[in-house]
Amino acid sequence: MTEVPLFASSLAPYHDRLAEALDRVARSGRYILGPEVDAFEEEFARYLGVRHCVGVANGTDALMIALRAVGVGPGDEVVMPSFTFYATAEAALAIGARPVFCDIDARTFCVTPETVRAALTPRTRAIVPVHLFGNVAPVPDLRELGMPVVEDAAQAAGAELRCSKAGALGDAATFSFFPSKNLPCLVDDGAIVTDDDAIGELARMLRFHGSKDKVTFTHVGYNSRLDELQAAALRVLLPELDGWIERRRQAAATYERLGLGGHVALPEPTPGARHAYHLYVVRSNRELPVGRGYYRTPAHRQPAITADAELPGTEEAARTNFALPMGTELTEEQLGRVVERVSGST
Length: 346
Ligand SMILES: Cc1ncc(COP(=O)(O)O)c(C=O)c1O
What we know:
single chain, 346 residues, alpha/beta, 34% helix, 13% strand, globular, binds pyridoxal-5'-phosphate
């Protein structure tokens, strides 16, 4: 019997429309910062309910640029979880800032106002909650702490908290369009989104060498741009996003209906959140015969960082999490097989 794939999504139904879009751009002769990027930026901003979207080369650059755009500079502290993909911390380090790691709630895999508050110091310049696995961190509560909040929404396109989209909750937010993400393109790309005109303008300058007019250079920036080919692909796929997220939610509901919760601890959305299930991550004290553990070595214990921090929720999540198959293409029979394999082992 074939294994149920961990990432069970496919772009096959969209291949013809993607090929048409790529062909249109290839023939247009406009490849960098042209009408497709403009249109995608406007469409994604409208989808999220924010004023500005700035397309960049990947989600890591998006974080570097967003942090600088909200005023983080060398020596500043940025409070963030350690239980995340390493790039969240790397982005802060790459701009000369210092990641200060706070704990998470092991049930939601996200930071809380209490864990963030415990890590604040007079040198804190920003907070980066991560909407891990497609859950949503409690950003409105974090904003009450009085610091700029940059949401790392790389894994959370399509998620919501109290009727707002993840990405529309903070001072700015960043996305990754890496091919396995909820909203994918065909290579690496990403975006910064914000409702704040000044943050949007600075992010737009930083992605193009720190220039507004391509003649005068007022900042040391980056060459980090979403290109026309991928913007055209994203414009084909963005209208599918909500439907895909609904299928992911149905798969999660089926796991629950089939009794998975009798064997492992199920993912717990933050109160008020509608989870996007980028990954379906359960917790178990025993090794499971299916799935994969994520971030077994959290960022603060990676060799490039090795920060001293006591983070019991992080250690628990790192030790006990298992991502089970999730995606837009799973059948009830496949989900049933996963539940059977998990139940046979516990
Ligand atoms: C939570 C998180 N932050 C940041 C990133 C970085 O995005 P990218 O791979 O597009 O640079 C990722 C991507 O995997 C991620 O999962």
